Amino acid sequence: MRTDLLDQLLCPNCGGPLLANMKYPSQGDEIEYGILSCGCAEYPIIGGIPIFKVEGRVDVMHQTTDSVMRYGPSVKELISLIRAGQHDKALLLLLVIPKRTVNKLLAIVDILPREARGSVQALGRRLWSKQQQKSRGLLLDAEKKTTAHDLIRFFYQESLRSELYNHFFYKFSQPRHLAGLSLASLVPLSEKPILDLACGFGHFVHYWSTADPKRRVVGVDRNFFQLYVAKNWVAPRGDYICSEADLKLPFSSKSFSAVFCADAFHCFLRRWQSAEEIKRVIEPSGLIILARFGNSQATPREGYELSVAGYLKLFEGLAWRMFSEDELLQRYLKRLGPQLEEPTNLSKLAPHKWLYLVASGESRGFKNYPGFETWPHSMGQLKLNPLYREVSRDPANNVTVEFEFPSKWYEFENASCLQYMPKKAIISGTTATDLTAEIWSNEIESLVQRCVLIGMPEHYL
Fold first, then answer.
1. Are 460 and 149 in contact (CB under 8 A)?
2. Which one, of 232, 210, 235, lies nearest residue 219 by Cα?
3. Nearest to 287 by CA among 344, 335, 340
4. Could you tell me how far CA 70 lies from the centroid of its own chain?
5. Predicted pLDDT at 68
6. What are the C-alpha distances in Å from 208 to residues 235, 237, 362, 380, 453?
7. How far apart are CA 21 and CA 35, in angstroms?
8. Which tops the pLDDT comparison, 388 or 64?
């Protein structure tokens, strides 16, 4: 956590200023471990990420989809470990999912009489500690031999056996991501940072901080593991806060030039409170962008969806434009930005499942955006899209690659990617040389346009 972030932070409970105590390192502009305190509460900083929770447990994983919640350490325990200088122990408690048996043992402790808890809790903790030590090298890899892919696979595929592995790992070329990028590109340059609510692994933080390394982005999510991977592997230039996104936000008013939320707003239980907080923390001329939220008028239903009118009521009084995912995607594939000058025809949105909203206190920035100078999905190191696998290579080193959906569910959710991603593609032997020399050839342009090559963080694969 950068120390200058303190200027924007407030206690979400009392609204008072926060001071950093027990800082490690004690000098410099970064705080890796410490305690934020105000007049009413203390909040731990673990691995450079402040955790805004006063009491109870910080679940190792709390995902809306899949209904997954896993036992984690208490806030008091984390603060005690920081005071004792046991930093790695505190970090590992937040990164290692207790196995099913361990999770059950630890959960049982909560319902047992106090006098009967000791032996059960000790056994669960002992087994959990063995798990942590086994995974220590993978999770605390200072030399970055581990990749973001290794960690996403460790957490979602190996530990949870969850479809969320496919969703998060293959995100950079998904139709929803491209549509989201078309709106993310609208955020103007400003001295004030961007707030990414429910930022997950930082895929959009990567876009902003790569397109302009001087731009400040703050990501908020309740899942510490995702923030830890974002901070260390996906988008290390970002700042990250572990907090619920639909409760009181720990920021002073008018702190941000834009607030962005992708793939999550319809999953928030407290959408009214979230909308009020978004309006509080953004400057009057700033952009509010909600990317891909569910329309309750179209099936299938998920989360806590509203109708088109219901979403607009939350942002009443602001200028706004709303889009369907199909509309944004089709313009993006033509290398065109969104059209904001024309008012939205709400009747056309009713049958569309996935919607996108741009809102602001001022409408002067609402214009029709021209073509992108650079493909937003090319930000980072150009690499072969992991949805493709090599099937043949000829003597001239020309490689044939083939597209493959990782699962039936992924195909159901992302079928429209076949509008722009070919089933097969040939990559000539000169392409690798051109990429190394940073020569943007016509072939590379074509491969990027079709998402055969995509930009990714340095330590993603």
1. yes
2. 235
3. 340
4. 19
5. 57
6. 9, 10, 23, 11, 19
7. 5
8. 388
